[in-house]
Structures are given as C-alpha cells and as structure tokens.
Amino acid sequence: MNEEKEEKIKITDGAGGRAMDRLIGDHILANFSNVSAGEIGLGELDDGATIEKENGGTLVLTTDSHVVNPLFFPGGDIGKLAVCGTVNDLAVMGAKPLALTSSLIIEEGFPTSKLDSVLASMENSSTEAGVPIITGDTKVLEKGNMDGLAINTAGLGLADKPISDAGMEPGDKVILTGSIGDHGMALMQYREGLSFKTELTSDIAPLNDLLSIAQNAGGITAMKDPTRGGIATVLNEMAGKSGLGITVKEEAVPIKEAVSGIAELIGISPYEVANEGKAVITASKETAEGVVEEIKRHSLGTDAAIIGEVNKDWPEKVIMETEVGGRRFLEEPLGDPIPRIC
Amino acid sequence: MNEEKEEKIKITDGAGGRAMDRLIGDHILANFSNVSAGEIGLGELDDGATIEKENGGTLVLTTDSHVVNPLFFPGGDIGKLAVCGTVNDLAVMGAKPLALTSSLIIEEGFPTSKLDSVLASMENSSTEAGVPIITGDTKVLEKGNMDGLAINTAGLGLADKPISDAGMEPGDKVILTGSIGDHGMALMQYREGLSFKTELTSDIAPLNDLLSIAQNAGGITAMKDPTRGGIATVLNEMAGKSGLGITVKEEAVPIKEAVSGIAELIGISPYEVANEGKAVITASKETAEGVVEEIKRHSLGTDAAIIGEVNKDWPEKVIMETEVGGRRFLEEPLGDPIPRIC
Q: How many CB atoms lie within 10 A of CB A192?
C-alpha cells in the first residue's frame, strides 16, 4: 500500500511504447470496466472505438490531447497537429471523418495573437481535411500551471467496415506511405538549434483522402499511424495484436537523408520517433502493389513503398533484414526518445 | 498590431460569463468558418453540436476539459466531474448519451494512487450514468508544467429531437431542477478551510435519467445546465438566444441555508457560481406543472420548482422580482467569481 502510494507517473509513461502500455494496462484498464459500445472498445487500445449503428455503417469515436513543445515548429504548430492527429486516427480506423471537437486549455497571459495563429492553423487544416470543428470548450489556468496551450480534439467518423490494428494475415505485404522520422527529427533539430543545417520540416498532414484512396484499391487488412514511439512501436503493436510476425527489409524503409543525419548526430533511432503524416498499411499480396501505385499518385504518398511482409513463423515479433542478409529484432522502445512531440 | 500582440488571456476569459463570450467571439469564432455538420454547430455556442443522421435521429457531439482545483473536494473529484459534466451536456441537448472518450494530461510525479482514485471515480460515474468510456488518450507533462491532472471528456449522444438553448416561447414556465450554488460554494468553503462549518457538498450528478423523465412529461422547449457563471449566466444566455425576456421570482429559487451562509460570508452571489447537478428547463405553461411533478419523484429533482416565466416584454433581459415587489435586472457576470471550479 505504501509502495503504491509512492509510485509516481514518469515522463516515459506518456511517450508511447512499453512504459505507456503499462500505465494504461495497470491503471486505466484496471479501473475501467464499462468500456465498449461496439466491436472495438477501450480494451482494444486501437486508434479509436466503434459504435454499431442500427442501419449499416459504424460510427468511430476518437480523442487526442496535444501538448507539443514548442507550440510552433518547422512545418506546423499545435493547431495543425490537433486537427490532423485526430483526423488521422479516424482515417486509419477506415472511417470518413464527420466532425471534430476542439477543447482549449490556455495559460493565463498567453498572447491572443499566438492563440489566433493556432486557431487559424486549425481552420486551415480542418478545411484541407474537409472536416468541420463543430463544438468546443475553453478553460484558462493560472500562470505557471502549464506551458501556454494544450488542445484536445475528439473526432467522430463513419466507416462502412472499420479497420482494426489486429487484422493482418500471413502473407500480407506491409506498406509504408512515406519516409519515417520527419516529425520527431524536425522538432528535435529545432529544439537543438540545428534547424539552419537542414530544410527538414514535420510531415504533419491529414491522411483521410490518401487512406480512402488506399482502401478503394482493395485488400487492406490493417492500418495504423506511427506517431509516438514511431514505426518500431506500431509494427510491434500490430504484430502483438494479430499474434503474427513481421519481417521488414531495412533498405526498403524510406528515410530522408536529413533525418538519418540528425538521427546519427543525436543518437536516436528514426524507427522510434513520431510521424504525423504517415501510415503503416497491411494489404493482401494480391492487392499490395496496386495499393502502393494508387498511394504514389497522391501528393502525400509519393514515397510509398512495400517495406515487409507478415508471417506466422515469428509470432508477435518484428524482424529487420539488412541488405547484407543480417537479421535483428526491432524491439518496441520503452517510450519515444523525444518527449512532448504531439 | 502591436496592441494585438500585447493582448493576453486573462483568468476571467475562461470563467464563463461575458469575458469568455468575448474570447470565443473575437478569437475562436472569428478564426473558424468550417463549424457545422447539422442544425446546431459551433456558432450556436450550445452545450454540444448536432450531426444529422440519414435515417431519423440526430447525433449530438460535445466536449469539456476539466481543470478543477482542488482535484478532490466535498462530494466528488475531477473524475466524477469529467464524466457527469459531459453526460449532462448531452442530456440538456435532449440526447441519450451513447459513449464517452477520456483524455488525460498528467503531470510528471503525480501519484498513481491518486490517479487510481480518479479513474475509479470515473468508472463509478460512468456506471451510474450508464454510459461507457470507449476510447482515450494519455499525455504526461514535465513537473511544473501544470497542476497534477487535467481530464478531457468528449461525448456522443443520440436525440430524437435535439433541444437547443434558444427554443423557449413567451408564456413558458422556467423550471429549476434543484437548489443553486452547491458546487461552487462547496469548493469555496473547502478552499477557505470552512468545511467544518457545514455539511455542504457539491451537487455533481449525471442528469441524463432525470432529464429524459422530464422530456417524457412533454412540452419542454429549452434545457441548459448552469455550470460556469451559474444561473445568472445561463438565464441570460437563454434570453439572449431566444430574443425573449425572463422574470424570476426570487423567493421561488431553491437555495440551501449553507449556501446562502457561505455566500454572505465571502460576498459572492449564489446566482453566479457553478452547479454540476442541476438544469434550467423551460416548458409550456400547460405542461410545466406536470414536468415538475415528474422531476420531484426523482432523487436528483426533489427540490425542483418553477422559478419564473418567459415574456416578450423584456427582450434578452432577466428580471428578478423580490417578495415585496421589488424588481432588478439579473445581469450576466463578467465571469464566475470562483475560478477553476470545473
């Protein structure tokens, strides 16, 4: 009991990865039992949850609180992140986003000019994604109680057939819609004052259009956006939830030079940092090539590639195959090595 | 421009009332244009927004971020508040709550034992209200960035016919489901260390059951829960949105002795502080008595009363009539005089 009392929340508990899995399992899921209104509920720890509709179609509900530091960074700001992050959570569930909520927690003394920039950026992203922000809430905290601004967005979508994280099948191809690590490394270089060295910007973008095109190409079995904890976390989650293995061809994974450069410089793996405009998709081996072709035609998917394959030989494991034939496990990190990135 | 740059957010901007109306009007509504998916959108500043369904019934979406201080107080905690607040926003829209989201922002170092109490309390309230928490998000901020815990809940509901704030008609009766000021004054006495003097506790409760009973009694034209800014704010909002006037018989307004006692002691009007388990309802003069009778049968409505009447003689005004025949305007406060109450 005393020990329990002394247990405290750590930064890594909120950084995706295994530490957050523990927090969610031992505390949130341990306390909640009334957690489902359809096939996919809180217990599935998917990107959102489903609510069966009486007449075909399934409602998808999701939520995300954004506490990014800094609020403004190369390629975007907390407003763009708040809209795109939630639109993307709906999109990877296979849902067409219908509407968003916007709930602001503002620190006393926050300049209204900065607030206006963030709100304008939310408006731009909501227009780009074609999803209205239909209701909201505003709270103000005394100075010193937080750092400027936190934004929660919840999203409601409608799916013909929701796509879960767990749906992949043996033999499926693993598709990545573009290069990895852009968001995490863009924030990192900015924080470290390295921005002048590269043109690298965050990849934040709404993926609903791209992913509906991908779905129309057919044969998609699972989709997930590799945010906190990067593709190392997401691939392991997909393997764990399906009970299957994934082999990834290292040379097939698209990475920008600027990203690998910063990664080496600061000693952080681009596989473990957040992306905000990318998706991992599994598709049947019959349709995968066609899915990639369709994705490549879209401006957000030009670097799309098949990076690996699903197998039943290595249950719940992700294996990296190097060009020269080397093999190693790609482990789920304890947490995203870059804190406060979304 | 420079002046704009210097304009900063104030505590009152988040306390309900006129200051928050300005913040929302001049900044949020000024920046957002893509704000509607149905009849009631962001622009209506209602307790939630509507999304038309193709086959009868209307979806209602709402969101609320909770930053109450202290996190634990007489009669409840931030977890109970987070669940009941959002359930009630759906209920006063005339919607049956279908599901909730839960998004936690936790400060590094927050004791997991306290987190567990809050989560257990969310679970209890979600069970009491009969509404599942189906999806969530968890973020952790570095120590010193906020005060312990903030919880956002978004809610999805389904209404046969949504009830807006603006629906009241001349001649309608104004019903209050119970005594005013309990939540705000309970927090205030606790903060001021006066708890020992009274048994006063917050009135936090889920109102979905009570308000569905009220609706079944018929003739309801508008409903609103008087949270931040109290009934002074809510009555003025309802008058403003309908373009009609409200007269309130002061002696008819139920107030607990403990509440008026603390109110006098600290010089704060119970009309201007938050309630978390009460609703203001307008109903046709034919049905109002019956509605009150039905409400009184429910444990959360025993003190329900008709407190006034809607007229067209005083557009957008709220007038208090005292026992001895005195009359004064009940103004909307600049903001709730008690900060951080929800």
A: 12
